[in-house]
């Protein structure tokens, strides 16, 4: 090992045994396989999160629409009640002044 280190000092090449080469090659391939699986998993989670976000936005829009409709109905009821009260007041004033 020491002689290999000394020899590689003067060269751009490093010599490794066939066992070291096989080990490093297999380890690299395994790391690539694991990283590919992790990337696929993360992409799947991203897609799930996007779908959930879209679903929440649709629910929010639906709820906002329902709230607006409820407000409109309540405003209409308020207008009807107010007109009814004004009519009753006018009738009472007519009775009193008559």
From TrEMBL:
This is Uncharacterized protein. The lineage of its organism: Eukaryota, Viridiplantae, Streptophyta, Embryophyta, Tracheophyta.
